[in-house]
Specification:
single chain, two-stranded antiparallel ribbon, 2 strands, 76% helix
């Protein structure tokens, strides 16, 4: 570790004492780590949503030989993304309250940024356990969806649920982008 010699200094109290070049205190290191985890959790969640919606889903439907295979890849990927999202949501909520506690002395669980992350988590849970689980049941009942007539009740319900799934994921993305902006603004 590189050190520098200090002349008489009120901070050290004695001439010729050595101290590290850097001047980080434990609270500064902790705040950096907390804020890093806050941003990382948002970037992973939002980045995952963007990649899924604009790269993965369109690519597999364009490249794979059947819509059934593409749907299987998308379904599996969305399930993984949902679990990652929930983990990121918990990390953000916890680190956000730690950040508030350190800065303001109060955790502020009902601060706007926390309300936004709660909404994102709730929407993700609805997408996972409400919509995606029902779509999975329909998928099993239908077999190959393209073999069914367009007016089949199961196919109509599946398409309706797909529309709602897309709306929910889009809402989570918009909330996440707003939250990212609020978080970045708070840290500046």
């Amino acid at each position: 570790m590189q050190r520098i010699a200090l002349a008489d200094d009120n901070r050290t109290g004695a001439a010729g004492k050595y101290r590290p070049i850097y001047n980080w205190s434990f609270p500064e290191v902790l705040m950096s780590l907390v804020r890093y985890l806050m941003l990382l959790s948002l970037v992973v969640w939002i980045g995952g949503l963007i990649f899924f919606a604009f790269v993965l889903a369109p690519t597999v439907f364009a490249v794979l030989p059947t819509r059934q295979l593409a749907g299987n890849v998308v379904n599996r990927s969305l399930g993984i993304l949902h679990w990652m999202a929930l983990s990121c949501g918990v990390v953000f909520a916890v680190t956000s309250m730690i950040d508030s506690r350190i800065v303001n002395g109060v955790a502020k669980p009902f601060a706007l940024r926390n309300l936004l992350i709660y909404a994102m988590i709730i929407l993700t849970l609805v997408g996972m356990f409400g919509i995606a689980s029902r779509m999975g049941v329909l998928r099993e009942q239908m077999g190959v969806i393209d073999d069914l007539p367009h007016d089949d009740a199961r196919r109509i319900e599946f398409n309706h649920l797909h529309v709602w799934s897309t709306r929910i994921e889009g809402s989570v993305l918009v909330l996440g982008l707003a939250l990212l902006y609020l978080t970045a603004r708070r840290m500046s």
